[in-house]
Amino acid sequence: MRYQDVHQLSVENPRFFWRQKMDLIPWFTPPEKVLTEDANGLHRWFAGGKLNTCHLALDHHVDHGRGSQIALFYDSASAHLKRRYTFRELRDEVARFAGVLRNLGVEKGDRVIVYMPMVPEAVISMLACARLGAVHSVVFGGFAPHELAVRVDDARPKVLITASCGIEFDRVIEYKPLVDAALVEAEHQVENVIVFPRPQAEAAMSPGRDHDWHALMHGTEPVDCVPVDATDPLYILYTSGTTGKPKGVVRDNGGHAVALKFSMKTVYNVNPGEVFWAASDVGWVVGHSYIVYGPLMHGCSTVLYEGKPVRTPDAGAFWRVIQDYGVSAFFTAPTAFRAIKKEDPDAHLRRQYDISTLRTLFLAGERLDPPTYEWLGQVLDIPIVDHWWQTETGWPIVANPMGLEPHRVKTGSATFPVPGFKVEVLDDEGAPAPAGETGNIVIRQPLPPGCLPTLWENDQGFKDSYLSAFEGYYHTADGGYLDEDGYVFIMGRTDDVINVAGHRLSTGEMEELIGSHAAVAECAVVGIDDQLKGQVPVGLVVLKDGVEADVRALEAELVQLIRREIGAVAAFRQAIVVGRLPKTRSGKILRKTIRRLAVEEQIVTPPTIDDPAIIAEIRTALRSHRVGQYANEPLGDEDAAGL
Ligand code: COA
Ligand code: AMP
């Protein structure tokens, strides 16, 4: 069947379509129903089905002749370490670690937080939770203690798993003090903390609460997979919303397994036995779906790379890994290639490696800007696939379906809706936008399997955030348009979410934090275009009347505040004190105008502006702080120590 027919069938008759696809995975008990609504009117896939996600990812392959195939290549350019696990070895480690968790009282439905760098033990932790039917919540290692504490209080885990440190380029970041600080701040008491020790840093342990990974593993008996319902949660992944409280995106077991298995062939066109590499982090959705679950469930070997695209040791790092492991499909964020292009503009290093196994390059996490796309086209002679998705959906919404029917690419477009997703564009009143006209990108309900069924213990929040803006649709909060041929163009977020080096962050949260400072009357944080990171946050701050402050010192203090409360990953380097903010006559801050003032020479003054004279004031403030010009320069040691 051709793409057009498959897509049409999937959106016109989703029950029929996904009934056919549910056989892609081996269930313990097949589902009774394909699609149902729960008591709250929310869609649930594959009710009545019993399965275990760890079984699909590991045991099933061991039982069906893949036991000695490599499941995981671990390559740490940061720690100068390489290790490989066959499916059998990984299954055995996971089964034993599941035994460790069970000995600590973890049962089906209990939550476990994983706050770890890119080490195999992070993957083992996730799969061990899945094996027990426990719900993992991985927190990205670049987040500060406050962010971890917020997630601990929301998920209320029985166990928290961490490592003694992460390694950023050549800098050792001790994780245990961050965990200790988070657990002091959190109200929820975590009974047990498991620490994976790394030679680069020793962790201080609290007797009774903290346990050494190896000591717990020693002599522990493996445990078997616990059957769970298709609709039971596999994980919670917190993601930035518009406020300081992150959203707990829930992923179920059944829909997730079917959707990922379907995507591995349809979108990524890889076959069992091949090597799939997503250069992301297990703390992000890409890491969950395409470092851990997707490739393993599909019987692929996956690569866990601890390092950066550059300076570990050079801009040839990605090409080396592709060569060393014979990668067939590679997935990363455009920002990574912008970093490589900056250091090796003529791609000299690429010629040092044999990357002939690579069939397709996939990019997501932010818009694939045309200059990066064109550069990649010169460097590689394989298809370059931009595809669009969100933490909430868990797998691609729009892509060039390489395993179904590859299409001609239009620069700037992620191509067509993936089967399962009915993508439309509506204006602010909910009327369909004509082809070529930018509006709100929405997905007609039901969302396909694999997408979030709800937010963690917050059905109402799920409805309010995603389902209430346009009746019958899921609101993506991305703006864009469909052209006359149906190609989808994603132009950027319509809310307070920004993308910084492929990391999703909330400017609303930054505004809340800055606004809490005693000297601040009001502020606006906006994402300014940045050549390397795509966007970087910049804050404009108005002081309370009568506050006498050393402005430069206050600006530095606000930068440290964000770094301390959210983390270095926010890349918040500029807070600028101004006399007032540009607003409409009704008092709304003109954030888009601020963004444009930073990067454009000429802008049209918005007709609704309260006082046009402010445009010149803000422009001068942005220029004097060289906004948009030096955001990528390394921080001095003093600043760096503030994590
Ligand atoms: N633990 C602790 N700190 C972390 C961290 C982690 N896991 N990840 C990032 N940080 C810190 C960094 O050390 C840096 O700190 P600094 O301000 O003290 O230097 C800060 O957070 C910003 O990190 P990062 O966004 O990685 O920027 P960078 O300048 O170090 O590197 C790139 C730039 C482009 C090389 C890098 O951002 C990159 O590889 N991006 C790809 C992102 C990606 O894969 N996203 C997933 C979507 S698919
Ligand atoms: P995350 O939840 O971290 O995956 O971030 C999701 C957001 O990243 C989306 O809502 C988009 O704004 C952006 N994004 C992801 N992929 C793309 C893409 N291919 N093109 C444009 N924006 C993208």
Output the keywords:
31% helix; 19 helices; 31 strands; five-stranded parallel β-sheet; binds adenosine monophosphate; binds coenzyme A; 643 residues; disordered C terminus; 2 domains; GMP Synthetase, Chain A, domain 3
Give me the secondary-structure topology:
Elements: H1 3-12, H2 14-21, E1 35-37, E2 43-45, E3 50-51, H3 53-66, E4 70-76, E5 81-86, H4 87-103, E6 111-115, H5 120-132, E7 135-138, H6 145-155, E8 159-163, E9 165-168, E10 171-174, H7 176-185, E11 192-196, E12 210-212, H8 213-217, E13 228-229, E14 233-239, E15 247-252, H9 254-266, E16 275-278, H10 285-297, E17 301-306, H11 317-325, E18 329-332, H12 334-343, E19 360-363, H13 370-379, E20 384-386, E21 398-399, E22 416-417, E23 423-426, E24 439-444, H14 459-467, E25 473-482, E26 488-493, E27 497-500, E28 503-506, H15 507-515, E29 520-530, E30 534-543, H16 551-565, E31 574-577, H17 591-599, H18 614-624, H19 637-640
Helix pairs in contact: 1-2, 3-4, 3-5, 3-10, 4-5, 6-7, 9-10, 12-13
The protein binds coenzyme A and adenosine monophosphate (AMP).
Coenzyme A (COA) binds at residues 117, 141-142, 166, 168, 173, 279-280, 284, 286, 308-310, 332-333, 335-336, 339, 364-365, 501-503, 568-569, 571, 635, 640.
* Main beta-sheet strand count, sense and barrel state: 7 strands, mixed
Give the termini separation: 53 Å
Unreliable stretches: 630-643
- Backbone structural class: alpha/beta
- CATH topology description of the largest domain: Rossmann fold
Helix content: 25-40%
Which percent band covers the strand fraction? 15-25%
User: What is the count of β-strands?
Assistant: 31
- Give me the number of helical elements: 19
**Average pLDDT:** 95
Give the radius of gyration: 24 Å
Cross-sheet strand order for the largest sheet: 5-4-17-16-18-19-20
At the fourth level of CATH, the homologous superfamily of the largest domain is: ANL, N-terminal domain
CATH class of the largest domain: Alpha Beta
Identify the overall geometry: globular
CATH architecture of the largest domain: 3-Layer(aba) Sandwich
Number of domains: 2
